[in-house]
Amino acid sequence: MQTIGSMLDSVARYEPAKTAVIFGDRRIVYRDLDREVNKLADGLRWRGIGRGDRVMLFMQNSLSLLTVYFAVLRAGAAVVPLNVMLRRGEIGHIGTDTKAAAIVADAELWQRERCVRETLPDLKHVIVNGSPEGPGEESLAQVMTDRTELPESNVELDDIASIMYTSGTTGQPKGATQTHRSILSNVQGCCTRNKFSREDRLLCALPLFNNFAINVVMMSSFASGATLVVVDRFDARKVLDAIKLHQCTYFAGTPTMFAYLLQEYDPAKDSVASLRLTSSGGAHCPASLARDIESVFGTVHLDGYGQTEACGFTTLNPFVGVRKEGSVGIPISNIRVRIVSDDDRELPPGEIGEIVEKGDAFSVHQYWNRPDINRAVYRGGWFHSGDLGYVDEHGYLYIVDRKQDLIITGGSNIYPAEVETVLHSHPKVSIAAVVGVPDALKGELAKAFIVLKKDQTATEEEIIQFARERMAKYKAPRLVEFVESLPQGPTGKILKRELRNKIGKENR
Predict the structure, then answer these.
(1) What are the tens digits of pLDDT across the range 286-314?
(2) Cα 14 from chain centre
(3) d(CA 304, CA 93)
(4) Burial state string for 309-339 with b = 16 or more CB within 10 A and e = fewer than 16
């Protein structure tokens, strides 16, 4: 197996004139991308940045971001991608935790958070994509040298390539380490399952500081010698226009993104005939939404399951073979999945328990600098996901919910994902999210936040009755609130913690 840097170099050697990336009206072929990466990697090496160092990336989607990402790896260092919405306190925590030696940032973003440097004594280099304005800062152009050949590397497969910080729903965010081996093992499994080839054009509208975007979309594209089409941010109109203009064959996004695409889609002006495959992740895709995607866009839609700790999907429905409605598929190559009880006893098919996994896609370094959490989460050699699910007799995985999202009402368990699946089947509902509301008698009640489709109206009673006719009465939401939108992270994942915080404030 090659390292990630040598993987890109190999493609540049056998497909030098093939278009590697399209971003807006700019295109770059593999040969030129590889040369730009080498020039920047050489400049980083000259500044003492190499094997074992960490480099934070604070950048919006762009060609420059892709160059920087691969240059850091080719220099031998590890990338620490930063969500562009982070503020100085959050950046300070990550920079301190990793003892990052450098940061590469877009000028506008760095101007906003420049004062964080005062809190980071280990930060020796600030490289600005744009015009540097502060003391000791350099521009990206200044760092690049004239050396276009692949620099010598002593990088090993189990060296850390990336440290991605989780959202921190419980306590401070923690850094999930990813090695060259774990990333490429996952990419190989995804490419095989999705039947990617050099003829594909993969569209990325996810932010390229996100695991889904980097490893599932970008890495798969380059590993296949395909073309990566990047848009600066998700916008349903931009995505539909890009599919038509560039004849994209693959699009990956969260279920929320697909719901917005379906709302925006106009068959009179939008052509999506080039799409052969779509896939969703980040949250479970309701069966009704998956059916709508396939019928409206005429594509095969694959729902999958995975996490940052595994570098991407760990299970995915097969492109060729049996796809089961409501399932997130079967394990990709080199991944094993089990369902266990609270005492780690393996459960038989059909029984709900915690999803645990192991395989080459999991880094040998586990969480960065967190031995306490590693002992609990990686116990027995298995990664304990905190997700609840079950497998059927054929090994297909079904997600029930997150342990932390479980609602207990009157001693009975309510899995929000199950309720949301029913609500999404209502013809007027576009997006739904269900959370628990404190109740003095029952402990908790289920409350649904609902975004209706365009030009639709509905009542709370109508939604509740619809749910009660399709599931046990105790599972149906007792409360319904109609909203214009739901709080989302940069990848489109619904932020249920903000809904719970909203409820908490209202109850105070």
Answers:
(1) 888 899 999 999 999 999 999 999 999 99
(2) 30
(3) 31
(4) bbbbbbbbbbbeeebbeebbbbbbebbebeb
